[in-house]
Design a protein that fits this description.
- A hairpin with a 4-residue loop joins strand 1 and strand 2.
- Among the domains are: 41 residues, no CATH class; 116 residues, Cytochrome P450-Terp, domain 2 (Cytochrome p450-Terp, domain 2), CATH 1.10.230.
- With 268 residues, the chain is mainly alpha-helical.
- Helix 3 runs antiparallel to helix 8, helix 7 crosses helix 9 and helix 8 packs parallel to helix 10.
- It has 12 helices and 3 strands.
- It is globular.
Length: 268
């Protein structure tokens, strides 16, 4: 540590403290922030280094709510069985759930945002002015992905086979707040045209629409997974709290363990 008297300097635009004051984002934490801003608003501010507008806050917090919990997903199960194994390590159970945020669960938020951003970057700032124009851009993107053997992130859901109920609601909120931007419009267009290429209709999933909405807020696409994990941390804490009240972790473990069947190793 250094008190700054020896010439060392570690610049930050986030938090600093003295013996009698804590500063965060250039504000006095106790006088300017506590009781004045919501946690979601602060999370946005910490990353963007600007205070979000009320409209941006509404869309951002709607994303956090949409991603907080989705039932007994692998992340929730991981947290619960880790807590079963180590009830003395709450942080371990939370971490176990968060570590599962990858390309199939949660991580799709960032994957979709990145994908849409790449497509839009290829337009070099010339954006379509109609749904037909967006459909043409989306059709080309889906075809190129199919030819390259790549999945289009944000398509399909293991539970919601027809419509993910979060998707139309988040789009509607963004529209109400004047924040239905190019990422969301491209994502919607992908939903309209992908069947022409893939031969089947898949729903636009909630993680994907969240990525599109966050990208339209101007947040760095390289950090979008972090917002999904921020939201899921709240859900996982709820899962662990419920595990304490109404445990199922032992049943999950015993169901798998008691039904394990030995098979000879594959000779190959």
């Amino acid at each position: 540590m250094t008190d700054g008297t020896d010439g060392l300097s570690f610049p930050t635009s986030l938090g600093t403290s003295t013996a009698d004051q804590i500063k965060l984002l250039g504000q006095d934490l106790t006088a300017d922030l506590m009781g004045q801003v919501s946690f979601g608003e602060l999370a946005f501010w910490l990353v963007a280094l600007r205070r979000p507008t009320p409209s941006e806050t509404r869309v951002f917090e709607a994303v956090l709510v949409a991603l907080a919990d989705h039932g007994f997903t692998p992340t929730a199960i991981a947290a619960r069985v880790t807590y079963l194994s180590a009830p003395d390590s709450l942080q371990g159970a939370l971490a176990a759930g968060l570590l599962g945020g990858g390309s199939r669960f949660l991580g799709v938020t960032e994957d979709c945002g990145r994908y849409l951003h790449e497509v839009l970057s290829g337009l070099q700032g010339t954006l379509p002015s109609s749904d037909e124009g967006w459909d043409a851009v989306a059709l080309k993107a889906v075809r190129q992905s199919r030819e390259a053997g790549r999945f289009v992130p944000g398509l399909g859901h293991p539970v919601h086979k027809v419509t993910d109920p979060r998707t139309p609601v988040l789009i509607a909120i963004a529209e109400q707040e004047g924040l239905r931007g190019p990422h969301l419009r491209l994502f919607e267009a992908i939903g309209r045209v992908h069947e022409q290429v893939l031969g089947r209709r898949l729903p636009l999933n909630g993680a994907g629409v969240c990525g599109a909405a966050l990208a339209d807020l101007g947040l760095p696409v390289e950090l979008l997974r972090g917002f999904a994990l921020l939201a899921r941390a709240a859900g996982l804490l709820g899962q662990i709290a419920e595990e304490r009240r109404r445990p199922v972790g032992m049943d999950v473990y015993m169901t798998v363990d008691r039904n394990a069947v030995y098979v000879d190793p594959d000779p190959d």
